[in-house]
Structures are given as C-alpha cells and as structure tokens.
Amino acid sequence: MARYELVKRSVALITLTNPPVNALSSAVRHAMAKSMEQALNDPKVTAVVICGENGRFCGGADIREFAGPLRGPPLVPLLDAIEAGEKPVVAAIEGVALGGGFELALVCHYCIAHFKVNHFVLKIIKAVGMSRAAKPLSSRRVSMLTTPCPPDLDALLEVVTMEVKKKARGVMAPLACIQAVRAAATMPYSKGIKRESELMATLFNSGQARALQYCFFAQRTAGKWTLPSGAQWNNSKPREIRSAAIIGLGTMGRGIVVSLARVGISVIAVESEKKLLETGKQMVIGMLERDAKRRGVSASLNLLKFTLSLQDLKDVDLVIEAVFEDMALKKRVFQELSKVCRPATLLCTNTSGLDVDALAGVTDRPHLVVGMHFFSPAHVMKLLEVVCGPRSSSETIATAMSLGKRMGKVSVAVGNCPGFVGNRMLKPYMDQATFLLEEGATPEQIDKALEDFGFAMGVFRMSDLAGLDVGWRIRKESGLTGPDVDPKNPPRRRHGRRYCPIPDMVCEQGRFGQKTGRGWYMYDKPGGTNAKPDPLIQNLLEMYRSRYAIQPRNISDQEIIERCLFALANEGFRILEDGIAARPEDIDVIYLFGYGFPRHRGGPMFYASMVGLERVLERLEHYHQAHPDVPHLEPSPLLKKLVACGSPSVQTWREHIKTMHSHL
Ligand code: NAI
C-alpha cells in the first residue's frame, strides 16, 4: 500500500502502491502515516521523497470507500503532519496527481513533475541528495504562503460564477470551488481550510455526489457485459482486428473511418458514386489531419484506401455498413458482402434502429453479424451501442466491444429491438414534449425547463441541431403522416394512440432545423447556431390549437420535467423487463454518453430511484389517467413490482429483473 525504503543512506523513499492509480485508500493512508513517522524519527533520514508506483503519482481518494463510514486515519491530519514536519518532503509527480493526490503534492515542500522521464524518481533522489536538506522549510510550507487578493475579487468571482452557472447548470461542486477560492483569498489559512471542509461536507452528503459516484461505477459495469446464454466479458475472447471496411461515407461513415484509423487500423472506405467518394475522401482526410494536429501526432493517412468496389473487401477482418437507413438497401449490401468477404469477416451495421437479426438472416454467417451503433459525430461521441442479435456469437460481441474500447468509446451491449435502448427511449420523451406544445407550452419553455434540469440542450434545440427531416422521413415511411395516411384516421390519432402532427407541419414549411436556418427556432442563417424564438412558430401553435379547439393552459416546469423524464424512465423499465438492457447502469451510461443526460443526476434510471420509485409510479398513474391514449405513460410492470418490493436501490434491481423474461 505504501513501500518504505532508505536510499542513498539518507533519503526516505515512500512509494504509494495501490494499482491502478495509487488511490488514497484507508490502507494507503495508514501505511503513509506509519512511513512518515518512521522517516521523521530516523536521524539518518534528512529528506523524504514521495512517489507513486507504475508512473502514476496518485489518483486521489478511493471512491469505493465513500459508501461506508470512514475507516483508517483521515487524510487532512496526515497532510498537516507532512506539511509541518521538520524534514523536507519532495513530491515526485508522474502521470496523475488528482483530488487528494493533488492535495498531497501541495503539502510537500517541493514538487517536481514530469510527464514521462526515464528513472525520474532516481534523478530526483539524486538531486535531493543533501542539497535541500539543510535549507529552512518555513518559506516552503503552504500554510505560510500569503495569497494575493486582487482588489476587484468580488467582481472577478461574480464573472466566473456566471460562466460556471452557464456551463455547469445546477451542478454544485464548481460553485463550491469558487467559494473555496474566495475563502483562500480572504481568510487566514486555518479559517480557509475550515471553510473548505464545510463546503466539502455539504458536497459529500449531497445527492449529486451519490449520482456522480454511481456514474463512475456504472461506466465500469457497462464494460463487463453479460448475456443470458452465459457468455460474458471474462469468458469470451475477442478477435484481433487489423483491417476494416466502411460502406457509405456520409455523416456517420466519415467519423467511423477517423475513429478506426487513429488507433492504427487500416480502413477501406466504399461509396456508391465517384463524386461522393471524392467528397467523402477529402472530408475524411481533413478530419484526420485536424484531429492529428490537435493531438500532436502525424495523421495516419497511409492506412486509408478509397474505392467504389465491394470486391476490394474480400480480405478485411470486419466491415461496418453505414449506408442510408433503408432496410431493402441494407439487405442488398449484406447479401453482397456475404458473397465477397472471406467467411471469417465480421459484418456490422450502424443502423440507428432497424432489425439487426433481419440483416443477419440474409447473410451466410448470422453468428458474425452484430450492430455497432455509433453516435453523431462518430469520431467525437463516446457512446457505442453494441447490438447483439439472437444469433450473434459471443466472440463477435466480444470483438465489437473490444474494438469500441480500442477506439476510446464507452461500449454498452444491448439487445435487438426497434431503436435498441437509446432511440427507443427517446420516442416517449420527445412525444411528451410535443404533446406539451399542443396543450399550451412553447419550445423555449420546454427547453428551458430541461436545460435548468441540467441537459446541455433541450429537446427542441437538440432536434434543430440533428435535423428535423430525418424523423419526418421515418414517420412518412411508417405511414404516420403524409398522403398515405388513411383519411378516416382522426387527425390527432394514429395506430390507435395519440399522435401530434406539429413536427410534420414544421417540416412541411421547409423548416429542417439549423441547416435550413429555421426549425423550432430561427437562426441568423442556414447553419447558424444562435437559436431565437420564432413568432411564426408561435402563430403556428396558436392556429393549431384553435383548429382543434384546444384551450391552452399554463404548464409548470415541474409537469414538463415529470412528463418528459418519467416517460423516459418508464420506457427504460420496459427495456429492462424485455431484457434489451441487462442492467439499469447500462441504460444510464447510454443516456449519459449518447444523449447529454446530466451526469450529476446519474442517468434516467438512477434519477427515478432518487426521486423515489413510489412517487414516479404515482405521477405516471396520474398522467396516464389524464392522457389514457398515451400508452407510454402507463406504468411498466417492473416499476410496479419494484415499488411492491419496497423500492430497492438501483444496484439491486438486477435481482428482481432476473426473474423476468430476457431476450438479450
Ligand atoms: P448519410 O446519408 O449522411 O450517408 C449515407 C451514405 O451512404 C451516403 O454518402 C451514400 O452515398 C452512401 N451509400 C448509399 N448506398 C450505398 C452503397 N450501396 N454503397 C456505398 N455507399 C452507399 O447517412 P448517415 O447519417 O451517415 O447514416 C448512415 C447510417 O447510420 C444510417 O443507417 C443511420 O440510421 C445511421 N446513423 C445515423 C446517425 C446520424 O446522426 N446521422 C446516428 C447513428 C446512426
């Protein structure tokens, strides 16, 4: 936990040994306290060097210990003892010094840091030798330093506070940090530290801390995928992928090529026409060059090949199809790939919601077919849904999961159903937003409520960014809107349930979002990003309500949040029930990394558990009673079952789900 050595006969070397980041667990703190005591009491020791094993100084507190009561010596008195000690202590910092690890570095009398130097610690010991040992330490103690306090401190902190509030809406910790800085600048050290401890205690006991800790573990849990067949992350071996092919160099294909090439995988990119191939090629090269420049490496252009012929793919290890969202086209591509590629090639699809097993069914290797659902822009967004069909082999799933990890993605294994997890849940959430428009709300009111909740963008701003035409095309193809709709259909009902045609009416006016300069909002120009409320949308809503004799009512922010987010979580419960996601953590990770769900709320399922399942159930029942033609508001059986079991904590839901049927 902490190794003590006497080196060069006079330097005590204390090495933190708690892999992977040498976190300050109770055992580490205990060993450090003992080592420091030994060093300070040993007359031979004239200086102390603290370092971390394996090139990492210290990653801070051990978050696994947060759940229980404090064990072992607390950190602050240990840090005080180091700082007040009569022997110089040097922090030899490599890799990371985060949180408590950074505090440890600060109380040392000297800090020497380097990203990577061979024999770094040895060099420091040599330099420390005796030269520092004799010098007085008073000027080196952090508690003795005076903090310069600028005369305009209040104004300065006010500006910073405004910026932080905008960037980290509703998040407590950054604001507490500003208050701690104010304390440091205006109070003597001992009082400042006391104030900081108070702030820390408030944060530590907050729901936000619990949510953030949950997110940390949920992300790790997602990597440990498991299937009812018994296949799981630790008994399925992934294949090594050296070469890949991407079909379709549109929005998604380009980003996927970049994600693969920058981790050293050679990529063949295929387009359907020469001009599109050339455009796609120029875009990919530009993206890779910008990416390489940003990371200070050279662009791996030599790994790329561009072609119009599928015949060139016969030897690749894996193919990812990213052509238009059109089942007939995708089936043709998969049939073709099945003929061209060698029998061992994995065939993957980036479809956002089509049936992965139907695609597997047209190939000669259904066990080697899996969905790899990237998010836009694919080279930036961290999430990857790995969609496992009933015939996908465990090796295929393991390979897709491991490839995702190699590309720096957070990969989550999910089952095969329309929309998978993320997009399936999005539908009830967006439906509620448009129903609220009908009933009297405005896009800006709904967006503001969601943004105040913590989303980076409300649902209408997000739709404008993504483009409104995509959903419109899907609704037309599904027979929900357009000339094919049965004229006998009541206007605000489709397929036996409530339907809001306002999004279709917006699209009919050529308003496709940011790209056309008009959508739910208006923008300065096509491609503009500065959203302003549009009086034309206001008019459209008023006309719509009067046409259908809807009396608009005042809708509270609370109703907006409850209807949008409880409908979202309710679909999450159904997904768990259906076995499409194995655990609530998987759903939360998908929403955190793919849909901008605020991290300090922990994800939709954790949020529901924090609100209280009983309350979520009661509110859903209430809203379903008011809107019986909206089946998404009808509480799911799993939610009812969990409430009947006394609303257990989210980490134990799995036990209750296990008893239910699973499709994964
Ligand atoms: P896109 O329209 O930007 O690009 C599709 C590309 O495929 C076009 O460049 C087209 O020329 C090419 N293509 C069509 N048929 C082809 C063929 N037979 N051979 C070679 N190339 C062909 O579409 P986008 O947005 O990139 O979507 C692609 C897939 O990714 C779809 O299945 C979509 O649902 C899915 N997806 C899209 C997301 C998005 O935000 N745009 C997010 C996640 C998935």
From TrEMBL:
The pathway noted for it is: Lipid metabolism; fatty acid beta-oxidation
Task: List locations, semicolon-separated.
Answer: Peroxisome
3-hydroxyacyl-CoA dehydrogenase C-terminal domain residues are 419-523, 560-651
Q: Which reactions does this protein catalyse? A: (3E,5Z)-octadienoyl-CoA = (2E,5Z)-octadienoyl-CoA; (3Z)-hexenoyl-CoA = (2E)-hexenoyl-CoA; a (3S)-3-hydroxyacyl-CoA + NAD(+) = a 3-oxoacyl-CoA + NADH + H(+); a (3E)-enoyl-CoA = a 4-saturated (2E)-enoyl-CoA
- GO biological process, alphabetically ordered: fatty acid beta-oxidation
* Enzyme Commission number, as recorded: 1.1.1.35, 4.2.1.17, 5.3.3.8
A GO molecular-function descriptor: enoyl-CoA hydratase activity
Q: GO CC: one term?
A: peroxisome
The record's keywords, sorted A to Z, are:
Fatty acid metabolism, Isomerase, Lipid metabolism, Lyase, Multifunctional enzyme, NAD, Oxidoreductase, Peroxisome
One Pfam family cited in the UniProt record for this chain: 3HCDH
Superkingdom of the organism of origin: Eukaryota
Residue ranges of the 3-hydroxyacyl-CoA dehydrogenase NAD binding domain?
244-416
Q: Which family does it belong to?
A: In the N-terminal section; belongs to the enoyl-CoA hydratase/isomerase family.
The subunit structure is: Monomer.
Protein name per the record: Peroxisomal bifunctional enzyme
Give the organism the record lists.
Answer: Cyprinus carpio
